[in-house]
Amino acid sequence: MKIKMRDGSIQEAGFEEELGRDAFRHTTAHILAQAVKRLYPDTRCAIGPAIPEGFDNGIQDRIPLSKFYYDFDFTFRFSEENFPEVEAEMRKIVKENLQIRQFTVDRESAIQEMEERGETFKAEILRELPEDEEISFCRQGEYVELCAGPHVAYTSAVRAFKLLSVAGAYWRGDERNPMLTRIYGTSFPSQELLEEHLNRLEEAKKRDHRKLGRELGLFALFKEGPGFPFFLPKGLILKNLLIDYWRQLHAREGYQEISTPVILNRQLWETSGHWEHYRDNMYTTAIDGADFCVKPMSCPGGMLVYQMEPRSYRDLPLRFSELGLIHRNEKSGTLHGLMRVRCCTQDDAHIFMMPEQIQDEIKGVARLIDEVYSRFGFRYHVELSTRPENSIGSDEDWELATDGLRRALEELNLPYAVNPGDGAFYGPKIDFHLEDSIGRTWQCGTIQLDFQLPQRFGAEYIGEDGKHHRPIMIHRVVFGSVERFMGILIEHFEGKFPLWLSPVQVKVLPISDRYIGYAREIESRMKKEGLRCETDIKGEKIGWKIRTAQMERIPYMLIVGEKEAEAGSVSVRRRGEGDLGRMPLGRLLEMLREEGT
């Protein structure tokens, strides 16, 4: 595929390459804008980028995005009902095989051109550029777009596309600005690839954790608390099962669990650097005339715990784990079910160690993360994120920290990609991106190596030489956010959780009211065995009860009637397999134990 760059040069890039995908979809956005201007000449155009893979409204890795958008200011209410005529016009433009020509003009000429065309949003962008800036435009037929590229060379390359949805979007993301109409679309080099992608989107909709969370009674979201999820009884069972599993693993691995306050004074956050680097995402309050902050992460509290008493080299490594309740002031437009919230439980841990312990500790955390993801059936890939522009600390410390992470990955023989400039402000990190059952990726686990916080807090330990030394700190999470991990699991399993993770593992379905007593006996026996069991006592026919249990994704249904009551047995139906026949209760319990409770 020929890609036209800003300087007019031509590069070859396949669709599987980021440059190729971006140029392809950026060109499709221009074709969309040209079609809109042909059909509705009074419409004003704003911006139309390709969306990087894995991001939309700040929701990382939510669905396989592979799309673009364009923001317009229509003179009428545009809706998805207008898609057919817009797509038809786009197909005409593709068929016309228009060449995309890049050219430059001076800033004043560019502003004049956009004002004459009535493109006031484009003119606003241009006015903010330096006076001597040379402005890049592209032309395809009669359509002229303010754009630096890159693009494909001809519109005929865009063989398959689909407009997906319409949303409102404030100009430049500022709610004080006009509300524009954002049209999302996607495009591919072939109809086959497009159909494959659309099928994945449909599958993602079916698995939407917000829909399933409501249907399965797991959690609720209310307008009275946007971004603050309510957990219902079954959802809290699921959350606590994850937490219990997490606690068992961390106790085995030598972590000591702590709990630090939700609100701490501003001075602490100034010392840690969060006040300077994370202030806009923090909630604040005043207590006795002093400023306090609601914690967006737990690390400064962990530092205070470390410094409570003198530490020796014999104490290290010291592993503190914490299920910290954190709050972050996320913008309302980025909130999304459990995936992006304002309040969540972060499965945090902070490891204090000596320099010679770095490799072993990083490898230990990586193995723990691998064990957890394998338990849920996730594959994953790893990225090493390096120093961002907005960072603290010396070049030497950053180099040592980055090399430490790199060496640990290499010793584990763990393949990784480098993600330049995406580290935390205090240190580089290893990010784990897990892959779910329909191929979507989610960034969850992270290992961050930090030389800075121990320095800022003056943390020390007494070395074997009797002198004071500075410890090195690892920040790490496995789930990331327990709530977000729940959302991922809901979609990964489509609500059909494995037996050990199901809020209700067994449901007893009496054929009629006469057998409720026997059903209760079965339920009692199940609960004594540690199983989560319910009895459906509604006065409905057995077919209705079975369908209801199927909709609730119950792993096992036990149907009881006259024959079962007389024989002390149950008729078993297993999710996904159907009728397993009648069997003694003892045999069923053995089967459940083998499957894993």
Oligomer: single chain
What distance lies between the first and last C-alpha atoms, to the nearest angstrom? 53 Å
Low-confidence stretches: 54-65
User: Major β-sheet, in short?
Assistant: 8 strands, mixed
Number of separate strands: 30
Total of helices: 18
Helical content class: 25-40%
Please tell me about this protein's structure.
The strands form eight sheets. The protein has an eight-stranded mixed beta sheet. The chain has a five-stranded mixed beta sheet with strand order 27-26-28-29-30, sandwiched between helices. Strands 3-4-10-9 form a four-stranded antiparallel beta sheet, with helices on both faces. The longest helix is centred in the N-terminal third of the chain and has 22 residues. About 2% of the residues have low confidence. The protein is built from 18 helices and 30 strands. Strand 1 and strand 2 form a beta hairpin. It is an alpha+beta fold and 597 residues long. It is globular, with a radius of gyration of 29 Å. The relative contact order is 0.08.
List the helices and strands and how they pair.
Blueprint: E1 2-4, E2 10-12, H1 18-39, E3 44-45, E4 68-73, H2 83-95, E5 101-106, H3 107-116, H4 120-127, E6 134-140, E7 143-146, E8 151-152, E9 160-170, E10 179-188, H5 191-206, H6 209-215, E11 219-220, E12 230-231, H7 233-252, E13 256-257, E14 263-265, H8 266-272, H9 274-278, E15 283-287, E16 290-294, H10 299-306, E17 318-327, E18 343-353, H11 358-375, E19 379-385, H12 395-411, E20 416-419, E21 429-435, E22 441-450, H13 452-457, E23 461-462, E24 468-469, E25 472-481, H14 482-493, E26 506-510, H15 516-528, E27 533-535, H16 542-551, E28 556-560, H17 562-567, E29 569-574, E30 578-584, H18 585-595
Parallel strand pairs: 13-17, 19-20, 26-27, 26-28
Antiparallel strand pairs: 1-2, 1-8, 3-4, 4-10, 5-6, 6-7, 9-10, 11-12, 14-16, 15-16, 17-18, 18-25, 19-21, 21-22, 22-25, 23-24, 28-29, 29-30
Helix pairs in contact: 1-2, 3-4, 6-14, 11-12
